[in-house]
Amino acid sequence: MSVKHGLLALLERGPMYGYQLRAAFDSATGGTWPLNIGQVYTTLSRLERDDLVAALPENDGQRPYEITAQGRDEVRKWFSTPVRQGDRPRDEMAIKLALAITTPGVDVAGVVMTQRTATMRTLQEYTRLKTEPGELPWLLVLDAMIFQAEAELRWLDHCEASLVRYSPPAVPAPTDVEVPR
Amino acid sequence: MSVKHGLLALLERGPMYGYQLRAAFDSATGGTWPLNIGQVYTTLSRLERDDLVAALPENDGQRPYEITAQGRDEVRKWFSTPVRQGDRPRDEMAIKLALAITTPGVDVAGVVMTQRTATMRTLQEYTRLKTEPGELPWLLVLDAMIFQAEAELRWLDHCEASLVRYSPPAVPAPTDVEVPR
DNA sequence: CGACACATGTAACACGTTACATGATTTG
DNA sequence: CAAATCATGTAACGTGTTACATGTGTCG
After folding, report:
1. Pairing mode, if any, of strands A53-55 and B65-67?
2. What would the pLDDT profile of B135-168 be if each residue is shown by its tens digit?
3. Most buried residue, A44, A69, A137, B2, by most Cβ within 10 Å?
4. What is the dotted CATH code of the domain comprising A3-86?
5. Which of A71-85, A164-178, B112-126 is predicted least confidently?
6. What is the pLDDT of residues A93-147, one digit of tens each?
7. Helices (H), B17-134
8. B11 and chain A: CB distance < 8 Å anywhere?
């Protein structure tokens, strides 16, 4: 529902057409989740169908939309309702790890390490982006991504530690035992 | 793709039928993202179509599926490939906040506060669940949720602080100024 | 002119959710 | 027997992605 409500919120600033909406969305979120132009049009059609936006007369090949009263209601509701845990999509990494543990023949530590490397790289890229100038909304989005990536790293480390405790190494550490010869 | 790959990974333990798969998935993830039974069947059909699983002969009204060699390949690939930032769904809260800032007439601090309360409650529930016994996979999933919620809380506080700096209160704090009477 | 950006749209597909229909088995 | 649980499946819908088709305007 992020795209639907996002476009709707953008239209509260005034009528806009598809391309403008995409540009505005991408700019507000700093291009973190670039919007496919095709989806803008399909979403606008659905919003129009539900009477949340209305098409204005075509002009110069451009087809601006304006938000309706019902659309404004929807936006107000969106902003005043928190995102609940149940609304969120499944956390793929959490699922992957949970299943990796109980799937025979999977190198769980490897899975953790691979993800750690990838997330680390992502975090570095975000940190680099932080040094560049930007508007407040985009800076906060960036911070959200950074906080999230840091949390994932902490979690991965925590998992690594738990796994060691859970399944001690199959091959014991070498000791000073007499070897028959 | 979490469901598709999740079911596939479960089938590596041995053939299972729909109901078993749902139970196994829910148990592994501690019921955090309960699986709709309808989706299990539609997903199984698609997996069968793609030759990642094969249906075994029906028995007692139960229709178990077994994973194919191609399916095993897919699972191996899933476990050895990290979840990239671009794979993740859009962060609805981040989008909401970014747009709230630039949408006229929105009480941004209110949006932050509402979310903070909701996330706080969620975190408390997770902390309570932590005190109950559980298997390692589910405990780690729970930890992932906790780390995530904590990160969101930190982010929300960070946003609140940034917003104060960005737009100082319209009504200045009361001072000891002479009031005409 | 040719390439590129702007602009709109459609079709097909993947994934996920909900609701519904159907039947077998178990249990109070 | 009636209700609940187990078990399978289908249909319809919502959301999102990709690819494709089409046309206009601008600029080197």
Report:
1. unpaired
2. 999 999 999 999 999 999 999 999 999 998 866 6
3. A44
4. 1.10.10.10
5. A164-178
6. 999 999 999 999 999 999 999 999 999 999 999 999 999 988 999 999 999 999 9
7. 18-28, 37-49, 69-80, 92-102, 108-130
8. no
- Cβ neighbour number for residue A20 with a 10 Å cutoff: 17
Can you tell me which residue has the tokens 């309808």?
B38
Q: pLDDT tens-digit profile of A59-96?
A: 777 899 999 999 999 999 999 999 998 889 999 999 99
Could you give the CA distance from residue A127 to residue A178 in angstroms, rounded to a whole number? 53
B111 touches chain A (CB under 8 A): yes
Q: Which of B33, B82, B155 sits opposite A144 (nearest CB)?
A: B155
Asked whether B32 and A125 are in contact (CB, 8 A), the reply is no
Instruction: Find the residue in A nearest to B138 (Cα).
Output: A98
Which candidate, B98, B42, B179, B8, places its Cα nearest to that of A9?
B98
- Tell me the CA end-to-end span of chain B in Å, nearest whole number: 70
The reply to whether residue A99 touches residue B137, judged by beta carbons under 8 angstroms, is yes
**Domain spans, chain B:** 3-86, 89-165
CB proximity A50 to B under 8 Å: no
Tell me: pLDDT of B35 over 70: yes
Calculate how close chain B gets to A46, using CA atoms only, in Å: 19
- Residue A147 in contact with partner chain B when CB distance is under 8 A: yes
Out of A1, A154, A162, whose CB is closest to B136? A162
Give me the residue from A85, A100, A155 closest to B147, CB to CB. Answer: A155
The string over B133-169, giving b where at least 16 C-beta atoms fall within 10 Å of a residue's C-beta and e elsewhere, is eeebbbbbbbbbbbbbbbbbbebbebbeeebeeeeee
Average pLDDT over residues B53-72: 90
Q: Are A166 and A98 in contact (CB under 8 A)?
A: no
Task: Transcribe A30-81 into DSSP letters.
Answer: TTSSPPPHHHHHHHHHHHHHTTSEEEPPPBTTB--EEE-HHHHHHHHHHHHS
Q: What is the pLDDT of residue B176?
A: 56
- CA A103 vs CA A112, A157, A162, B6, B76: distances in Å: 15, 21, 17, 10, 11
